[in-house]
Design a protein that fits this description.
It is a single chain. By secondary structure, the protein is α/β, with parallel strands linked by helices. Helix content is about 30%, strand content about 15%. It has a single domain, classed as Ureohydrolase domain (Arginase, Chain A, 3-Layer(aba) Sandwich). It is built from 9 helices and 9 strands.
Length: about 290
Amino acid sequence: MSYKNLYLYPQNIFLGRTTSYEEADFALFGVPFDGTCTFLPGARFGPTVIREASCNLESFSLRSFRDAEDAKICDLGDIAVVSGDVNQTLDRVEKVVGELKHDGKRSIILGGEHTITLGAIRGFGMDVGVIDFDAHMDLRSEYLDQKISHATLMRRVMEEGAEILQIGVRSICKEEYEFISQKKWNYVTALEVEREGIKKAVDKIKEFQSRKDRIYLTIDMDVIDPAYAPDVGNPEPCGLTPTQLIEILENCEKVVGFDVVEVIHGGRITALVAAKIILELLCTIKV
């Protein structure tokens, strides 16, 4: 493993402990980047506040009766992002994920804004199935004259060849609606989850996974209602509850990596919810 693109911060590590890289099943790193932010800034502080929150939660899960501390995690620190340069930052994310994949590690990425997911998926290869938990579809062709941003992320992922399933969406512009109307787009809205429970989302995930050998999860924390997760870059009312999201995530299999993004610096509520989601995933993902 090459560490030349990483800074390491041993005084602030996830769960307050780390195993050696050689022994680890999971390699965790942060991407403190919010260079295309257009509403609430501060996602660059997300990795720090999520790590801090993780050290103040009990790690034992009453869902799976497993302890997240038993998961073999190596916290590598944060990538040295290139402030203001999304392309160079994505290149660094892609390179690190590619190295972790080569070494047989499952990646856990702490954002940072959602754009960083594009680098992660490139690192895994576009044959990976992407399950996107998000309030927004992020399918604009351009946004504020930018081809690569948090609002165009999934359009770029789709164009580069990855298959996507979106869960929890509830915010869409006319351009995006016209785009998905021309395609057989795979998604479940937050309204459907509210009205029908999680069954449709779970059924969609199971069908999606049946066609894929590897699954990558990307969790934009704005998928959760701002009553539970207010500290995000683009909060959107009428979202999922943390319990709904975790129960849906319990059905995700073949997971080779995941990210949790768009937690901003401010109150600690959202960071605690993000850390709880990661802890539950660590108790669920089979290695």
